[in-house]
Design a protein that fits this description.
The complex is a heterodimer. By secondary structure, chain A is an alpha/beta fold. Chain A has four helices and six strands; from the N terminus they run βαβαβββαβα. Chain B has one domain: 2,3-Dihydroxybiphenyl 1,2-Dioxygenase, domain 1. Classes of the chains: A alpha/beta, B alpha/beta. At the A-B interface, strand 1, strand 2, helix 2 and strand 6 of A face strand 1, helix 1 and strand 5 of B.
Chain lengths: ~150, ~120
């Protein structure tokens, strides 16, 4: 969108039944991180901080502990892909511990921070700030959806 | 999804920005989720009433965004079957996103799809 936020629409190419039982491709399809989710909003994200020291997960957990909550964020998880033009982009995810459960994936945001320049992934200025990191990172919004093709076509 | 060229972010429905994310929480866990979100956002909600809290968010690359997206936590409306069904099925979670749209496009209200609700906020 013009404000830099974006929606990500996710749809599997084939249902699980498309792949031979017990095959590597079937297992990979079943293990995919969104495979256990119902159709609909599956996650939303704030902008992360891959260079934070201590890691963002530790900072968040400290805040949650201070607030008396037992909820925790998991350690950072690296991700990335190569664009069609050959440029490699990398990012880092900071997910809530319960993010992968079938229900509750949208109870709390996950964080996604760019390791490579953000302009390579979302081409606009990225100077931002975050309350935990003093003028380093500001919130971003990302919403992941599952099979929202009908909505997108409206 | 590069934002340039500008045509990448121009939408036929007039969408301009995210207005809000509305998370529903059953009354039994509302206070706990509010505590968690306050800790994670790092600031108390700017608006609070029985069963509804609102936090302001920022956007990347915008020192002073024209519109701050809002994170809204609320209990389900007892008169809204869809909201009640959502919390019964999913528990706490993201139920609706609000999208600011160019008011000249005539979109308002909300759209329910088989997969989620989108509220249209004309500006």
């Amino acid at each position: 969108m013009p404000d830099g936020a974006y929606l990500e629409l996710i749809s599997f190419t084939h249902p699980e039944s498309h792949y031979p039982p017990s095959s590597p491709t079937r297992n990979a399809r079943c293990r995919q991180q969104w495979a256990n989710k119902a159709c609909g909003w599956v996650a939303y994200s704030f902008l992360g901080a891959p260079r934070a020291t201590p890691p963002l997960s530790a900072l968040l957990n400290e805040c949650l502990t201070s607030a008396g909550s037992s909820t925790r964020y998991a350690p950072e998880d690296a991700g990335g892909r190569t664009r069609p033009d050959g440029v490699e982009i990398r990012w880092e995810i900071t997910p809530p511990m319960r993010w992968a459960e079938k229900e509750g994936g949208t109870r709390l945001p996950f964080f996604c921070g760019d390791v490579t320049p953000r302009d390579l992934r979302v081409s606009r200025s990225s100077r931002t700030s975050h309350f935990l990191l003093r003028d380093a990172i500001r919130y971003d919004l990302l919403m992941l959806t599952h099979s929202l093709a009908r909505l997108a076509s409206r | 999804m590069p934002a340039r060229p500008a045509s990448n972010t121009e939408h036929p429905n007039g969408a301009l920005s995210i207005a809000h994310l509305r998370v529903l929480a059953p009354p039994s866990v509302f206070a706990g989720v509010a505590t968690e979100l306050t800790a994670i956002v790092g600031e108390p909600p700017i608006e609070g009433s029985d069963g509804k809290l609102v936090w302001l968010l920022d956007l990347p690359g915008k020192i002073a965004p024209r519109w701050h997206p809002q994170l809204v936590l609320c209990e389900p409306d007892v008169d809204d079957e869809d909201e009640l069904h959502f919390v019964q099925t999913h528990g706490t979670g993201l139920f609706e996103i609000g999208v600011r749209v160019d008011e000249t496009r005539g979109k308002r209200g909300w759209s329910d799809t088989p997969f989620g609700r989108v509220a249209w906020i004309p500006v």
